[in-house]
Specification:
Number of domains: 1
Structural class: mainly alpha
CATH topology: Rhopdopsin 7-helix transmembrane proteins
Strand content: under 5%
CATH architecture: Up-down Bundle
Helix content: over 70%
Radius of gyration: 21 Å
Distance between the termini: 64 Å
Largest sheet: 3 strands, mixed
Number of helices: 11
Order of helices and strands: EHHHEHHHEHHHHH
Family: Belongs to the G-protein coupled receptor 1 family.
Shape: globular
Main location: membrane
Number of strands: 3
Pfam families: 7tm_4
GO cellular component, one term: plasma membrane
Subcellular location: Cell membrane; Membrane
CATH superfamily: Rhodopsin 7-helix transmembrane proteins
CATH class: Mainly Alpha
């Protein structure tokens, strides 16, 4: 793999060059990131220490919250630093590292959502086999496979990135490093590499979205045979999952299934799935989930009782 060393640093142009808008965005993104970290950590702690949340669904939700936190952390702190910094440079190695981390946890989030859909499918469509199919050992193996798959996907992104030679232009018209904006700076024909990106990232996004939508259609269809109370509970959980899937896969599919052309909405779409979705996930999974809210109240009551003693 040959790499042109003439460019050792990139300049991230960010979302806007207007000082007033930059200040507004700084506080908006700081609030979003703080909410993302606090919300997901709250879910992680609640699931970790609540005996009532020991089912496979919450086992997978635990790892979804970890992926959300790390996914957002891969871009937002750097974005906040660049907004208040006079120099917005990022070294070549830091840029490649950001590509790796961004895709590692983004892909992990996708795989965990698929596992959560599998869990709901077995629970609703195959209830008599649920305890056998979704036993703890199987869930652990599935999570390990998800980590391995995410790692392999990220390695593939790095291999593609290292193929790109850069011959002088180092201005990245984005707020983070990713293959799509890097392809536009490469001084080579990137047609084949872009096809590989679409085949890799694009295929993962579109295929996963298709699988998830089909699975939820099957789940919703099978609910006709359940009791009214069972349908209500299943619909509440399923609706939360569908909202998360649409919020994540819509923007991802838009970004990774087309040529690296520049559209005015590109960066805002990227903001939505790298900053907005990780922020909304904790709200969706807590505000719409009675079991999680009750577990949080019990933990809070237990903490207050312990402190009073």
């Amino acid at each position: 793999m040959q790499q042109n060393k003439s460019v050792t640093e990139f300049i991230l142009l960010g979302l806007t060059q207007d000082p007033l808008r930059q200040k507004m965005l700084f506080f908006i993104f700081l609030i979003f990131y703080t909410g993302t970290v606090v919300g997901n950590l709250l879910i992680i702690v609640t699931i970790k220490f609540s005996q009532s949340l020991g089912s496979p669904m919450y086992f997978f939700l635990f790892y979804l919250s970890i992926a959300d936190t790390c996914f957002s952390t891969s871009t937002v702190p750097r974005l906040l630093f660049d907004i208040i910094s006079a120099k917005k440079g990022i070294s070549y190695s830091e840029c490649i590292t950001q590509v790796f981390v961004l895709h590692l946890f983004g892909c992990m989030e996708i795989f965990v959502l698929i596992l959560m859909a599998v869990d709901r499918y077995v629970a609703i469509c195959k209830p008599l086999h649920y305890l056998t199919v979704m036993r703890r050992q199987i869930c652990i193996i599935l999570i390990i496979l998800a980590w391995i798959g995410s790692f392999m996907h990220s390695i593939a992104q790095i291999i593609l990135a290292l193929q790109l030679p850069f011959c002088g232009n180092n201005l990245i018209d984005h707020y983070c490093c990713d293959l799509q904006p890097l392809l536009k700076l490469a001084c080579m024909d990137t047609y084949v590499i872009n096809l590989l990106v679409v085949f890799n990232s694009g295929a993962i996004c579109s295929t996963s979205f298709f699988i998830l939508m089909i699975s939820y259609v099957v789940i919703l269809y099978s609910l006709r045979n359940h009791s009214a109370e069972g349908r209500k509970k299943a619909l509440s959980t399923g609706t939360s999952h569908i909202i998360v899937v649409v919020l994540l896969f819509g923007p991802c599919t838009f970004i990774y299934t087309r040529p690296p052309a520049t559209f005015p909405m590109n960066k805002m779409v990227a903001v939505f799935y790298t900053i907005g979705t990780p922020f909304l996930n904790p709200l969706i999974y807590t505000l719409r989930n009675t079991e999680v809210k009750n577990a949080m109240r019990k933990l809070r009551s237990f903490k207050i009782t312990s402190e009073s003693k």
